[in-house]
Amino acid sequence: MSGKRKKRRAQIFSIYMQRKLAFLFVMVLLAFAMLATRIWLINRDKGAAYKKQVLSQRHYDSRTLPYKRGMITDCKGTILADSELVYNVIVDSYHILQNTSDAETLLAKGVQYEYLEPSLNAAESLGANRAELAAYITQNPDSRYYIAAKKIPYQTKTAYETERAQHRLLVEELIDQINEENAKKKGEKDEQKIAAWRAQLEAARKVVAEDEKVKGITFEASYIRSYPNKTLACDVIGFADGSNNGAFGLEEYYNDTLNGTPGREYGFLDDMSNLERTTIEATDGQNLVLTIDANIQSIIEKYLKKFNDEHQNAVRQGYGANNIGCIVMEVNTGEILGMASYPNYDLNNPYDLSVLVGMPELDESRGDQPSGNYLTQDFVNSLKGEDEETTTRRSKYLYALWKNFCIQDYYEPGSTAKPFTTAAGLESGALTGNETYNCEGRLDVGASEPVKCHNVYGDGILTLGEAIERSCNVALMYEAMAMGAETFCEYQSTFNFGLKTGIDLAGEAYTANAVYRADKMVLSDLATNSFGQNFDVTMIQMITGFCSLINGGNYYEPHVVSKITSASGATVENIRPRMLKKTISESTSEKIREYTLQVVTGPNGTGHTARPAGYLIGGKTGTAETLPRKNGQYVVSFMGYAPAYNPQIAIYVVVDRPNAIPQDDAKYATGIVRNVLTEVLPYLNIPMTEQLSEKETEELQALLDSNTIALGASYLAQEVARGGGSGTDSANGGVGTAALFDDANGDGVPDGANLDTNGDGTPDAVDLDGDGAADSRPEEEPWKSYAVDPATGYYIDPSDNHLIDPVTGYKYDAVASQQTLNQIQESSQEAGTGTGE
Amino acid sequence: MRNETAVFQDYALIMSVLFLVGIGLVLLYSTSSYEAALKYGDSAYYLKRQLVFSVLGTGLMFFISIFPVALFRRLELFIYGFSTLLLFLIIPFGRAANGAKRWLYVGPVSIQPAEISKIAIIIITSSLICRIGIKDLGKIKSFAIVIGPAVLQAVLILVITRNLSSAAIVGMIAFGIYFIAVRDYKIVSVIILAVIAAGGGLIYASVSGILGGFRSDRILAWLHPENYAEGTAFQTLQALYAIGSGGFFGKGLGQSVQKLGFIPEAQNDMIFSIVCEELGLFGAIGVMLLFLILIWRFVVVANRAEDLFSGLIVSGVITHVAVQVILNIAVVTNTMPNTGVTLPFISYGGSSIILMLAEIGMVLSVARRGRYEEAVRRK
Fold it and tell me: Are A70 and A282 in contact (CB under 8 A)?
């Protein structure tokens, strides 16, 4: 049997060994007990701290998911502002610095970290600064989160990912090809092909292996605001920064609507202290659909820029005017079709200082009023510093650039206020419409000196209509005095002067202190107010009030947004026209339409130059002296409506201190109005009513040939070919269009003999002395006997050498006249000259 | 007769081994799934591989248990030679991972020669003791002969693979077997005191700054892990966070936070910290009890071994398992400085689990032929 029994040399596992084994077992037991105690002690002493540590390491708190700020589109769907999906490149230093090969392999390759170089290459291709990133990784080897490149385009990110996917795909395809070929029978196999593919596969695999060495690079979604049309409607839109804070315009006014709610990805501990992770998706912001039409907007901006280009650096080194503003509004709804000012800026790059060159310098000692100097390149360069003073000054000038002149600036309106004064007189009953006033060129209203009419020789006997037509200050002063300060101020407030219009744009000026209160008003104030001096308005106040004068007295709240839609496109809110009040009656409105039509069509009208070819429009010019008086600085404007017998749109153009001498010439504004309406009216498919003269046909043909108009061009071309609108205008009821056209045919001589603007079938000439014949006006146009200035075509008053407008008799002020003459003498340059036509 | 005795199986031992292997797979899956999914796109990557190793190892265990352990005594030189050869083969053919050359690759299979060393040392040490005889074992010369092959292997392991812990385990296994076999305590006491003195001296040298460099750093990081949170002690500290946040009953299986990338390669040496985090102190004691039951069964088998060699083989296996479990848990709980010791049956590693099961195969073989078989059979 077994050798165990023999015990000859057999050794057994003795008792003492068993005891020792038992001892060993007890030792193990003790060791285990000690270790268990140790685990218990760790939990008891450090448990709470370690639990916190674990949770804090987990970054369970939260991660914000970005939302997309809403789009802004015009009424036709053209995108004006949008948020683009971009990515931040996130680098994980710790991950990049991990090695899987051993030190010797790395040493053989001569690198310390096998993933560093490929990862840096990849990050660089994604737009990261290589040197900066490399430095960061070396200095922060444990960092898990570093933004190496900000806001790289979506395309760059997808291109990067697609490229890598293609590398992998190529490997798979080659393997499939080789397998397929291998599966063929022996005779059919093309061993050469397989060998070639194998070689390709080898290369492809190397590429993939190289790709896989890129570690620790991830992407984080983000959005940036972009404005595809750059400067278009910049004042209306405003801009939003990287944190989705809107500044100016719609971006500021509708900031909360445009912004969504950021999503969150966060962890929390459930009742079992387990870590749960939850994602709440971001809610994207809502979109704005505007009443603004990008085409009308671009037409406006084109002509503002054209004006600027023509007048830039003409008299002074600077822009064509301190400010040029234009609003086009729907008369019957208050919807803004276009609103622009110049100079403008690129919304994608609002901090571009180069745009500031040529803007008026602000006199810091006089409350930042324009000093009369203009910013030079050197001055703008000096704004680039980072010290506090420079920063403050820079933001002041940028603010001047960014602000919307049309709603944020206020100024004295000048004669464009006259229709309001007349309307107030008629509506209050102070005027009947049959009044006549004798203008002797000046009127003493108790001030230190008499208030002059712009025609210092006197306009003679004028009806209310003629007073508007000729823009007679004296007649308007009489009108205001007829109603008195109380009524005048009441109507100022009815027309919303001194109040905000409530337009849905940020920063509308508050002008309550810029208008008079009846109890503070003396006669001279009332007198000057009547023709638009000594009180301030904003452009939006003027045009909104003017629309109500034209449309029968309905004062609509002006607005820019017509609809708010959700991110998915569903309508959230429709913004309908909102009538705020009734300003005047329809009969008063009719009279104002009649009077303002005379401005453009009447023999002595100041606004002839505003009429676009093929259409009849009404309106009012304005030439306002700025403070301090007699400084030769003017704000010229034109406010009109079109077409004359079925008003659809109103337009208001203000040229603030044109870069010209003399400045007090409304043609700077009327020229822009004419240009804009020439394109906008056909674009809106408003039928032409007037015959085109030969000259107009040429002009329109030239415009068509210039190929600068896109929409409405076909209609315009059609009309040009046809020679304009129908010979007689049904609404006009027998107005002699031929007569009107005599006035507008560009010969510079108005034809007033048989003018009938109001459609009553009788000539407008006034019969005051009852002899049955229209009064001749012997005192009228005395300047016609004066010498003509050969350079400008203006008459020269021999008594004081002032220039006189040949049509209106307007006598330019001394400063402007002298400057003009000096300039003409100095050079033959025709700066700021030209005839009234 | 032999044929009859061959029928006996120690089912309690087999069950506790299979239970440990099963629990090990579950814990490994829980711990490794996150990193596996991240690294290989397959959360069961480590589980699948470990399952294959476990099945292979279990097969090997039963296969070895068929043969009498005396067979290994005959093969001692062959096994020892093979183990030594493999160690030398690392020098030209070894492949490095995690900065040290410890593995040999045969096709897709990787072998860690240090694991083979352990089984070789169990066999050769037991055999040498039997050859010298119990009577002469107390002599210094005998001690030197018995411990010599182990020291040689340990030095090779240390020099070639720079794996201090494996070298130490090899030495401890040999010393453990000698401790069980020798009757008097003279040499044993001297050695234990020497080791304690050396350890104390090392700690003192590190703290006082006499000893510089890598090892000193480890000791200082062990004493003050907070000061080395981003460097040497990162892993240790993260393991402590895991243990400390587990509490009495843990966060629940699969609920560990620390395995999500904070404890690098948690499925290897640091798996016990995840066990503590998920199953708490309760689970940790449970796992230790499983090992205790296993060792208890080993002790029973050793006590009833048919001869000295069989008993010493089992003693060697006991030492091996006990030392590795204690060292691993001690490292994880920062009771001793960080050295790479795996937790038997639970840590991921093919060589480790296959050879561990092979050792248990020898224990089963001893059990089959143990002296208590007659008593059982008579019933």
Answer: no
Q: Which residues of B touch A34 (CB under 8 A)?
A: 335
Q: How many CB atoms lie within 10 A of CB A334?
A: 27
Distance of CA B132 to the CA centre of its chain: 27
> pLDDT tens digits, residue range A576-587?
999 999 999 999
Residue contact B96–A105, C-beta within 8 A: yes
The answer to whether A10 touches A4, Cβ cutoff 8 Å, is yes
CB contact under 8 A, A53 and B303: no
The dihedrals phi and psi of B114, each to the nearest 5 degrees, come to: -60, -30
Higher pLDDT: A244 or A55? It is A244
β-pairing, A442-443 vs A451-452, is: antiparallel
**What is the per-residue pLDDT across A89-106, written as a single tens digit (0 to 9) for each?**
888 888 888 776 666 777
More confident residue, A270 or A248: A248
Partner B contacted by A268 (CB < 8 A): no
Half-sphere exposure of A234 (CA within 13 A, CB side): 19
In terms of C-beta density within 10 A (0-12 exposed, 13-18 middle, 19 or more buried), how is residue A71 classed? buried
* 3-class state of residue B256 by DSSP: coil
| CB spacing of B302 vs A11 below 8 angstroms | no
CB contact under 8 A, B308 and A13: yes
- Asked if B244 lies within 8 A of A46 by C-beta distance, the reply is yes
Mean predicted lDDT score pLDDT of chain B? 86
Strands A287-290 and A72-73: parallel
Report the C-alpha gap between B190 and B184 in whole angstroms. 12
* Closest to A39 measured CA to CA, from B341, B229, B246, B226: B246
Range of the domain at B275: 2-378
What phi and psi, each to the nearest 5 degrees, are found at residue A451?
-80, 130
Give the ipTM of the model, two decimals please: 0.94
CA B308 to chain A, closest CA, distance in angstroms equals 4
Cα distances (angstroms) measured from residue B316 to each of A21, B129, B296: 11, 12, 14
B181/A contact by beta carbon, under 8 A: yes
Q: Decide if A556 contacts A334 (C-beta within 8 A).
A: yes
When pLDDT is averaged across residues A244-269 and rounded to a whole number, the result is 85
Alpha carbon of B322: minimum distance to chain A alpha carbons (Å): 7
Identity of the residue in A25, A39, A58 whose CB atom sits nearest the CB atom of B276: A39
Pair B178, B129: CB distance under 8 Å? yes
Query: Count of domains in chain B?
Result: 1
Interchain proximity A11–B305, CB inside 8 Å: no
Bridge partners, residue A261, by sequence:
A283
A272–B312: do the CB atoms touch at under 8 Å?
Answer: no
Structural domains in chain A plus CATH codes: 63-68+229-289 (3.90.1310.10), 82-220 (no CATH), 349-391 (no CATH), 405-757+769-780 (3.40.710.10), 781-837 (no CATH)
From B113's Cα to the closest Cα of chain A, the distance in A is 19
Cβ neighbours of B251 in A, within 8 Å: 272-274
DSSP letter, residue A771: S
Angstrom distance (rounded) from CA B103 to CA B119: 17
From chain B, pick out residues whose CB is under 8 angstroms from the CB of A43: 243-244, 246-248, 281
**Strand A239-240 and strand A246-247: pairing?**
antiparallel
Residue bearing tokens 């005095």: A481
Beta-strand pair A571-574/A537-538: unpaired
Residues of chain A numbered 553-612 and touching chain B (CB < 8 Å): none
Enter the pTM of the model. 0.60
> Is cis: bond before A343, omega within 30 of 0?
yes
Q: What is the 3-state secondary structure (H, E, C) of B46-96?
A: HHHHHHHHHHHHHHHHHHHHHCCCHHHHHCHHHHHHHHHHHHHHHHHHCEE
Sign of the C-alpha dihedral, residues A167, A169, A171, A174? negative
